[in-house]
Every structure is written in C-alpha cells, then in structure tokens.
From TrEMBL:
It comes from candidate division WOR-1 bacterium DG_54_3. PANTHER family: PROTEIN DEFECTIVE IN EXINE FORMATION 1, PTHR21419. InterPro entries: FAM234, FG-GAP, Integrin_alpha_N. It comes from the Bacteria. Signal peptide: none annotated. GO terms for cellular component: membrane. The keyword Ribosomal protein does not apply. It is found in: Membrane. It is a single-pass membrane protein. Coiled coil: none annotated. Keywords: Membrane, Signal, Transmembrane, Transmembrane helix. This is VCBS repeat-containing protein.
Length: 361
C-alpha cells in the first residue's frame, strides 16, 4: 500500500509539472522567455547557491544582450517538449569558421554558418521528434565530420548525416519504431578509425543499450544489452579502470551500469541506490583522486534527489551523496576547477522549481 501511495504521489507531481510546462509554454508564446545571468555566493559545507539578475527577451525585439549579425534565428517546435536541448558548434567545412547545428521538435535539423545563413543541404526533415542535442564526429573514417542524432515520441529513429545533409548508407535505423533516447555518444571502441554510435532504446517498461557501427549494424559483443528499466540519460565513455581500454557508463531510470566495450558488465556493476531514479541527467567522468582512475558523477531525482560519486568498482566515495534542494536535476553534472585551486569542483543544475538553479560542491 505504501508503494502504491508513493507511486500515486509521484504521478500527481508529474501531472502538476506537465500542466505547468503547458501553461509556461503558452505564456512564452505570448510574452517571450527569460535569460538569467547568475552569480554565486558561498553557502554551508562548500555549497554555492546562485543569485543574480535576469535579462528579458521581448517578442519581436530579441534579447537585451547584443546579437551577432544574422542572429537570432527563429525556429518553432512542440512547446511541451521545448524546441531543442542544446546546440553544437563545429567547423563542418574546415574553413576556420564554426557552423551551428541544432535539432528541433518541428522534425527538422538545422545547420547555419556564423552569419546565420542556412548551410547548403539544410534543414533536413526526420521521422520523430529530435529534441536532444546532436553529436558530431568523423563516424565513417573519411576525414569529414558527420552529424548523429536520435528521435523519439511516436516514431524513434537514429540518423547519421554527412555535412551536406545526405543520410549515410545504412541509416536511419529503427528498433520497431521504439523511442530512442538522448544525444548519442560517439567513440572509437575498437581502434579502427571509425566511431561507434551509442544510444538507448525505450521499450517500456524496459529498455536496451545499443552500440552501432558506422553503417548502422550492431557492434560485436553482448549488444544490445537489456536494462532493468527505460533509459535514463545519455552515455559517457572513458577508461575508468586505467587498463588502456574504453568503458561505457550508462543509466537506466533505476541503475548505473559500467560496460566493457563488448557489452559485458564490469565487476561491481550495476549500482542501484534506494529511492534514486535517473531522468535526463547523464553521468560525468573525472579523475578526482589523481590516480589515473576515473570516478563517475551521477545525479538522481525524486525521493533521494542529489548527486554522488562512484569509483570504477561501483563504490560510493567518502562524503557522498550530497543533496540538492530540488527534486529533479534534469541537467548532467559538469566538472572543472572552478576556483583554480587545483581541485575539481562539480556543478549540478536543478529544474529550478524548489531551489537555486545551480549548486556547486
């Protein structure tokens, strides 16, 4: 009965959030958005809380901050999912200037030059909603950059485009029209000069982790791997155990997984924490101890909202987890030496409903 009540309470919270996003989206269509310029002040136990100013975007006038020539660019999307989640800056044509690549929930992928002009061959229309950011890299080893992305909502597809907007042979890929989740990760797992494409498949109430080759076929090994729930976030790739080989860190909604490149689980994994669920906030990898081994930073939501750090064997590091004031982190953690003291800090973004938008530890 307690589990049923807990489930009902969560569903009520989620329903309220959905209604909020719908009303927020309608309001934004009428009155524009807000951009917050944040400052941080130190709180207790090494935590920083953001305060600061806001800059308003008014309809038809653009932001108060000066814009580059040819910008902003207006694109529309399904406002209840937001137009996009991040853009990519990359020199596609190798002329020394960066192009801007964005996916939008109007089922299109855009590429502009730095002056805001559409690059020849773009935009391209896809099947499904490409809400998540794109990944860019030399997927097929031809010394040119390709663009990889996933779509979801009704029809899920995985795409790889060349820089001119052509779909590469073997793509798009579909797994029974199931939704494909989050920005794919690109990495050369076998050292052949071509990038593998790593992504999650949502087959509610379960999910799968796929590793695909440049031609859309499944990478050799124990792939796809069946998860204990739907995908929770994107993948991170790195040599976490300092053995000279890359590992894959991935989250279901319930667990943290660490895989060898052939799809076998590493000892000590998966890691599951009571009351912790993962939603959109992907893992980050960093060597906090300076010993050549990478730690894994994860952020969880709902009952045990906060973030924690695991070693390569799945053990919780001393001093973790640390709570966040909001129930939903949404954004992946970022790691860097913020105060230039020689030690790494972690920044985690909140949804912003019940607390500050950014917390540092």
């Amino acid at each position: 009965m307690r589990k049923l009540l807990r489930s009902c309470q969560k569903n009520e919270v989620r329903l309220v959030l959905v209604l909020f996003f719908i009303l927020w989206g309608v309001a934004n269509l009428e009155a524009g958005q807000r951009i917050k310029v944040q400052n941080a002040r130190e709180k207790d136990s090494g935590r920083f809380e953001v305060t600061g100013l806001s800059s308003r975007i008014t309809e038809g006038k653009g932001p108060d901050l000066p814009q580059a020539p040819g910008w902003p660019q207006n694109i529309w999307g399904a406002y209840w999912y937001a137009p996009m989640k991040g853009v990519a800056f990359v020199d596609l044509d190798q002329d020394g200037n960066l192009e801007i690549v964005a996916a939008s929930t109007n089922e299109r992928i855009y590429v502009w030059d730095y002056l805001g002009n559409p690059r020849p061959g773009w935009p391209q229309t896809v099947i499904g909603l490409p809400q998540f950011g794109v990944a860019v890299g030399d997927v097929n080893g031809d010394s040119l950059l390709e663009i990889a992305l996933t779509t979801w909502q009704t029809w899920g597809r995985a795409y790889v485009f060349d820089r001119d907007g052509n779909v590469l042979p073997g793509w798009p890929v579909s797994f029974n029209n199931h939704e494909l989740f989050e920005t794919p990760a690109l990495s050369d797992l076998d050292g052949d000069g071509k990038l593998e494409i790593i992504m999650g498949e949502r087959d509610y109430p379960m999910g799968y982790l796929h590793v695909l080759r440049y031609d859309g076929t499944e990478f050799p090994g124990n792939w796809p791997f069946k998860l204990d729930g739907v995908p929770g976030a994107g993948a991170a790739v790195g040599d976490i155990d300092n053995d000279g080989q890359k590992e894959i860190i991935y989250l279901s909604v319930y667990s943290v997984y660490a895989f060898e490149s052939d799809g076998t689980l590493m000892p000590g994994w998966p890691c599951t924490r009571p009351g912790c669920e993962f939603s959109y906030s992907g893992p980050a990898l960093a060597d906090f101890e300076g010993d050549g081994y990478l730690e894994i930073v994860c952020s969880c939501c709902w009952d045990s909202s906060g973030f924690f750090v695991l070693d390569y064997q799945g053990n919780l590091l001393p001093g973790w987890p640390r709570p966040t004031p909001d129930e939903w982190s949404y954004c992946p953690p970022s790691v860097g030496d913020v105060d230039q003291d020689g030690d790494l800090e972690i920044a985690v973004g909140n949804a912003g409903f019940f607390g500050p938008e950014v917390v540092f530890h």
